[in-house]
Amino acid sequence: MTTTAPLAAVIFLVTIGLVIVRPRRLTEAMAALLGAGAMVAAGLVPPGAAVGDVVGHWNILLFFVGLTGSAAVAERSGLFEGLAGAAARLSAGRPRRLLVALVAVGAIVAALLSNDAAALVLTPVVYVLVARFGLAPLPYVLACTFVADAASLALPVSNPVNVIVADRLGVSAVSLVPVLLPAAVASVAALLGCLLVIYRRELPARSPLSPAADSWASWTGVPRRLLAAFVVAVVAFGVASAMDLPLGPTMTAVWLLLLGVERTGRRRGRPLEGIGWSLLVFVAAMGILVDGLSSAGVTAWLAALVLGPVRDSPAAAMVVAAAAAAIGSNLVNNLPAAFVMADAVHGAGLSQASAHAAAIGTIIGSDLGPNLTPVGSVATLLWFVILRQRGLEVSTWSYIRVGLIVTPITILAALGVALLLGVPR
Amino acid sequence: MSAPVGAPRRVLVALAGTEDPALVAQVARVVGGRESAIELTLLHVEETGPRELAAHGLPLRSGPWPARSGDAVEQRLAEADDLRAAALLEAWHDRFAAALPDAGIAHLVARGRPEQEIVAAAGRLAADVLVLCARPRTGPTEAGPRSLGHVSRFVVDHSPVPVLVVRRSR
To answer: Is A127's CB within 8 Å of B59's CB?
Structure first.
């Protein structure tokens, strides 16, 4: 560690504090930008290097523009309602079967359109759907939230963390898919098992209401051309990734294709609506912040502390990285945690096999970790405080218990599969 | 003064909506067949916690993605909840009307935590008896320890009026 290490650590922690507390409606992106500015002002990151950081992330940044843009097109097209409607038809009024079908839909949406699309866009759609069946929404709402994370291991597009970790480690995000996709299947299966056990007594045998089939949205709501374009986009993206083309331009091309097809139809949105600009700023600023930590020696110190003892064992490196990332995600936020962990893995001087295994572990920990417990996260505690201020009593336990049960089990399931497939023996 | 429990007039039935329809026959057996006309009030409580959760996302949603307008979403979810409440009460209305043809039936929708709203409604209406299902979502419940769900448990503990707990047994 250098003498500037405490300063860098303080800047980083204060920034994370601002991101979590958000005083005076300060956005996460602005807070991260302030922190990055402080790193530069304190001389921890030379201005030239800061610019280089942002430019160096061009691939990731373009990727997020394309991804959030594509998710916005999907939302406007009614695709989410269509998928939920299909799940409802498959379930034939049986609440348990509906839960299974919606978990499957959530997993597909999370895998192809990112975890936040599944959690933030699909959840309200599912809520309205189960209300039509007269069912209590809580099991289904929590299923959406948890499956968004459980399935987000699957592909590079499934979670921003996946691309960030791979990018910072200089590993191709696509090369991790053969391990992470089966791990995602295992974690979704584990999640489904948990939910069916947890809610075994709360889901009635039949739904109390049988809404007419046309009273909820169906595939007919999605323009055929756009549906075809989605299929083409998924296939094209798969082929381009397999050819190791850079993800950023590919994803942007997919987005432009979808936009183009959308413009030919009647339902058009503003093309730039729904792009995650704040995510872009946040990721760019976080890159500079972690660079400051890195140049002050903080991440190297962390790496020696956490990964030093397991340097020679890929399996141990994977498990330790997953645990550290999961704990870190609950203490700070999972994006910063993933950034720091990736940098630590990078600087730990691991063998190539160990670094690969540690990358997988980091992705598993920071994708699946964040739902663990409100007690472990300041952000969640604040959320409960806000709800209380608005006069809403939330029966906290019904949320906590699910996270406490589901998170360790899904992590173990994913880790088990990843250890089998991702560690050379 | 409320009427003796044997001859209830104002009956409040708390419904999650997922109860077994056999509940109606059991209620009719206990309160029906008297001279005095029965005023039946069917109460459904919309739980507002899950709506908040769905509209604003879990706090730990990973990325700082653009904030969606939670209030607009919540409005949509509130409408869905109102629709469900109305449809559920309508369905139960028909069942009770068939079993108790002479009863006057009113609907009541409350929002909040079910256990608290049920107790409050019972007091407000000065019901002669409050009817609830032991575990409205669990299938058959035999009498015995833990046979009451947490909502029924709270209501039995706090109700200002006599409570009739209906079990659905095999």
So the answer is: no
Tokens of A25: 């409606």
ipTM score of complex = 0.85
Interval A10-57: pLDDT, tens: 998 888 888 777 677 777 788 889 999 999 998 888 888 889 888 888
Report chain A residues whose CB lies below 8 A from the CB of B59.
374, 377, 379-380, 382-383
In sequence order, what DSSP letters do the residues of B21-57 get, joined into one string? Answer: THHHHHHHHHH-S-SSPPEEEEEEEEE-HHHHHHHH-
Considering only alpha carbons, which residue of chain A is nearest residue B86?
A: A134
Scanning A205-246, the segments in alpha helix (DSSP H) are: 224-242
CB contact under 8 A, B54 and A277: no
Q: What is the pLDDT of residue A243?
A: 86
Residues of the domain holding B38:
10-56+69-166
- Per CB-CB distance under 8 Å, the chain B contacts of A142 are 53
In a domain, B52, yes or no: yes
Tell me the pLDDT tens digit for each residue of A266-323.
766 777 877 877 778 888 888 898 888 888 888 888 888 888 787 788 899 899 999 9
Minimal Cα–Cα distance from B6 to chain A, Å?
31
Nearest to A114 by CA among A126, A106, A124: A106
Please report, for the domain that includes residue B40, its CATH number.
3.40.50.620
Please tell me the total count of domains within chain B. Answer: 1
